[in-house]
Specification:
The protein is mainly beta. It is built from 1 helix and 9 strands. Strand 7 and strand 8 form a beta hairpin. The termini are far apart.
Length: about 140
């Protein structure tokens, strides 16, 4: 009887974890080997039944970096960013409010804990600069 109850509890906990939605904004602070700490925001969305992500280094560059792959297997979350030769691998907490993991980029790796942002705690993502203005074809540049 105890084994059956344990198996049922294990199945229910696993179902709860799989049902947790990881879409939304996740934020954490990364400490590079040199320089100040960097605040990162990972914006995860679901588009056409596929997870997508954008990374924002909000203290350095307002341009988002798109992920080329986002996977989730139970509590394991993996996000790859080929444009910066980097990625993030972590484990979703049982309550779905945080992800503990590691950020890797080139030869650098460091622990990065992400917390699910709420409207009250979310860091503002800076707007990217406007595109450069073009010259009129009739402009005299001389």
């Amino acid at each position: 009887m105890k084994n059956a109850a344990f198996l049922l509890l294990t199945a229910l906990l696993g179902t709860t974890l799989l049902a947790q939605d990881i879409t939304g904004n996740w934020q954490g602070t990364l400490q590079p080997p040199q320089g100040p700490a960097l605040r990162l925001v990972l914006k995860i969305s679901l588009q056409n039944d596929k997870l997508k992500a954008l990374a924002y280094s909000i203290d350095r560059n307002p341009q988002p970096i798109p992920a080329n792959a986002v996977t989730r297997d139970g509590a394991a979350v993996k996000i790859s960013f080929s444009a910066i030769a980097g990625g993030y691998e972590g484990r979703l907490s049982a309550d779905g409010s945080s992800i503990a993991g590691t950020w890797r980029q080139d030869s650098f790796s460091a622990p990065l804990s992400l917390t699910r942002a709420t409207p009250e705690t979310a860091w503002a993502i800076p707007e990217p600069p406007p595109p450069p203005k073009t010259c009129e074809p009739t402009s005299n540049l001389a």
